[in-house]
Amino acid sequence: MKINIIGTALVSFIMNSTLRFFVPVLLPFIISNLNINVYLGSLLVTAYWIGYTFMQIPSGIIADRIGISLSARLSFFAMVLLFTGFYFFRSYLCYFLIQVFIGAASAMVYVSDTAIVQAASELKKRAESVGIYQTGFFIGASLGEYLVLRTFDISFDFSFYFIMILLIIALILNILFMNYKDFKRPPGRIDRNIVYVALIRFSAGFSYIGFAAIFTTFIVYTGIVNYKNAYIYAWIPASGGLITSPIGGIISSRLGINKSILSIIPVIIMDFIIMFLNYLKKYIFLLSFFTGIMYGIYAGPSMGMASDFSGGDKNIASSSGIINFSSQVGGTISPIIIGFLYSIYHSFYIPFIFISLTSMIVLTIPILKLRIHTRYL
Questions:
Q1: I need a surface site. Which of 116, 125, 193, 258 has the fewest CB within 10 A?
Q2: What distance in Å separates the CA atoms of residue 214 and residue 139, rounded to the nearest whole number?
């Protein structure tokens, strides 16, 4: 494991995730400022996931062709450049387009960085390395959200400047350290059983990403907190993953536990929590914290299977793109479904039940196909 690469990739993912939730955590303000309804606001969240989702597989192909290091640097630079649009163009249409293109750039950053992290690690420690790397998501989605909302208390401009400085620092680190070319395995064909891994990722993305993206809006619109104090709580769903993201990878790598099992069980538990969240509002923040814990356990083993099914390191970015594509399809669809169902029922009861049940139904397919074993090819 190359510490400089893992560390830089971690910082990259932190900022990538911070940008991912920049609009969602500011959504109540954006809805009010642009004079739009919740449904149109949810489309802004979906816009990011449209770009992010549909760029997953192309990102993997491009990264494998031009080199994962070059792909990581160029895509991060593009993401930083696109972020400046939030400062210069302030209309609904502009925000929508910026979200789409930032999502596309973010996809290439993620796929390239994931490929580098796995390629730079020993075969049997790749799930562990991915687990450490995935911690960046939870830091960005928790601490990043907190910083965005906290600095937003001063002004939108101040929040923008603060995040931009952090992005520039991360970009410099990318330029200096994201350079790796020593592939450990010869190229082969991607295993078709990767489709079952993709279904696991879809289920988790459909329930958790949708829930996390809409969480700030949920606690504000249900009267749990007012928007002025939302920053105190917005980070909670992601914070649990700070603890468990490395743990999931370590367990599957060092104890030889089947990665598919260690990916599926936490998602089922997470689905049940989200399903009953509306009925247990007294424990809303504790339960939300546990969704992050479950997602953290799932993250490392599920993404680590990209290496197991890639057929060789020359395809590792493509394999990562395929797996994460499914996760983001779920994350793209669920926020808009939540927003649509909320506009009909004026409650989050039905939306949360729907996304949880759908996730569990999809999981029955990989559960029946538990022949997806941990393999080091």
A1: 258
A2: 18
